[in-house]
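I am writing to request your help with a piece of structural work I have in hand. I set the record out below, with my sincere thanks for your time.
___
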Amino acid sequence: MMPTTKILSALIPPWWSRYQQRFIGNDIVAGLIVALMLIPQGLAYATLAGLPPQYGLYASLLPVVLYAVFGSSSVMSVGPVAITSLLTASALAPLALTANDYVLAAALLAFMSGVFLFLAGVLRLGALAQLLSHPVITGFITGAAILIIISQLKPVFGVSVHGENTVALVLALIAALPTANWLAAALGIIGVGALLLSRKYTVSLLIKIGVASNIARTIQRLVPMLLLLLGAALVFVFDWQTKLAVVGALPDGMPTFAMPTFNSSWFEHLWVPAIVIGLLGFVESISIAQSFAQKKREPLDANAELRALGAANIGSAWAGGFPVTGGFSRTLVNAEAGAHSPLAGVFSAGFVLLALWFATALFSFLPITLLAATIISAAVQLVNISAFRHAWRYDRSEGGAMLGTAGGVLLMGVEVGIGIGVALTLITLVWRASRPHIAVVGLIPGTEHFRNVTRHRVETNDKVLMLRVDENLFFGNAESVASEIITAHTQHTHCHDVVILMSSVSRIDVTALEMLHRLNDDFRLRDIRLHLAEVKGPVEDQLKESDFGTELTGEIFLTAYQAFQKLSGNS
């Protein structure tokens, strides 16, 4: 059995040995500022996930503490975010659960996602972050953000409508406008406008009147909390709780800690969404952590991040919460507020807990429409139209994958949208690899370099055809490569030597090797010699294990220049 001291030492995070007493003041201040930002976000994102608001605060307690134990980023702020909240609602909606079962299923979803992430970290699968391309992630985030905005128009206008897809929901919203609660709509629209305008103008206006820039940025990030407090005050003073939906009474104190209820039928429906939520949350979180680690020149362990996010989600489930991940805006605030370690997150959890003990009566007056306004203003920042334009101009296939992902998310659901994006990306990769670029090359005068004859002024020899293959050779492109080489030779009828430059070929599979055998035999029958040049070491080792080297009608040259000089009769 492992001694108790070793168990305790294993639980001491690596950053603790570097911690200095002078950091604690900064971490306390950062924790307070993040908590003031986290409280309105937690309440809002819980409602987005379809849960009572207090569960957003429950999901902001243990996750940050456990991340502090296992994580490697000094400034990452973990908790509820818009995307995981939407994914939670999307995963649970088809189960048609009662209110109590919905809460239990959300906790089970967080637990399953956490176990997946933690095991991936234990197995050192940090490369999981590379499974989704940037266009797919950007397309998903943009599509999900638009979906979030549309979904939050219901509480803004105080209507209860449903739709099988986004188009049906929008049409239902339009049809329900005559029955809208216009007091809620006015508050919600003003709230969205105020939040968007404050994000754009607050800092510059405060600096103009003499406020220090760091204080101005802090005030701007506290605007959502100030807006909610103002809304609660208006509801209390004017007795609006009878005229529009409010949060209502919340339970005081800490949540009930317990392992999530296991239900086999829920598990069957939720294991795929749990993996999707875990993978997307990790990709989002590791991207944030890497950007800040580079700025601070700190080491970052992707496998530790997997374990930390896994533990955070298991902790959220134990508190009855829902899936969590790293949030960019909170992490940015945490870093700019002077956080030196994950201990700042522990302090923020402490301040959230104080709010649960002493401020729930205030939360009960919060208008639901202003929580929706908070979500909408955050989601607007995630819509990245410029990325679509850039991707489309640069590479139509990448732009198509981005557009397909966003459209799939909007029209067919989150999982389907991601599947469409991944499928389009894979199809593009296979299509390109199956039709590699093959260039006829010639010698740049006065050098030993060879370039495409259609792009550069080069020297060639009618008796020697130099071809560069810009792709690995495998079963998917073997026949295409052979066809291109034969076609190129038919356009150079006086050629007696064909040289294939292999500088871009890192692997030749069995099918491609058979293709080279056939090509060699075909050229032999026509009294044409086939040569290779600039063969990489691993490929050369593969060829030595076969009989191709002995059957090759020509030679294997070290460089293209040597091949050209010898076959042209210049050496």
In short: Strands lie at 78-79, 325-326, 438-443, 450-452, 464-469, 497-501, 529-533, 556-557.
